[in-house]
Amino acid sequence: MQIFKLEHSKAAYRADLALYCIMVVVLAAFLLMDGPREQRVEIVAFALAGLVSWPAIEYALHRFILHDLQPFKSWHEAHHRRPKAIIFTPTILSAALIAVLVFLPALLATDLWRACALSLGVLAGYLSYTVTHHAVHHSHADNTWLKKRKRWHALHHRRIEHPGYYGVTSAFLDQLFGSIRREDTLKTADRDPNVY
Questions:
Q1: Which of 41, 145, 146, 147 lies 20 to 30 Å from 128 when distance is taken between CA atoms?
Q2: pTM for this structure?
């Protein structure tokens, strides 16, 4: 298994998902069992802050990094060309980015407990994104929420010249920043959400 390969085997894909699940569980257990009791409310607040910040992180990464900055842009274009292929950010890269861009700055600004809690929230958000993105491309929509996410993401994949619809787990920031086209949303309202 190559560490920096973009297209992965099913085993590597499952290993990535399992690793992030394990990291979330282990970090949550560490904070619950070893975290100072007098900081429990703060720890929960920092974890929630990390989780609530995820949609903004997801939107910014998708809109400004994956669509504008090389080599990420060419990697993401490969995903657009082949949406059913198992193409994703290598685990070592995504984990390193979370460590360097979330954990270390939080550690320098606060303490170990708050940095771990904030990282836990972001990791949980990233995990929710990973699961949602997988479901959008590789499963049939059985519920209303997933059907909406599949339609939204299908619009993103269809908008090559004028991209938009960057949110995978949420449409809120696309609506807030106007990165949608109302006519696209209306045209696809009755289409089959299982477009991939």
A1: 41
A2: 0.87
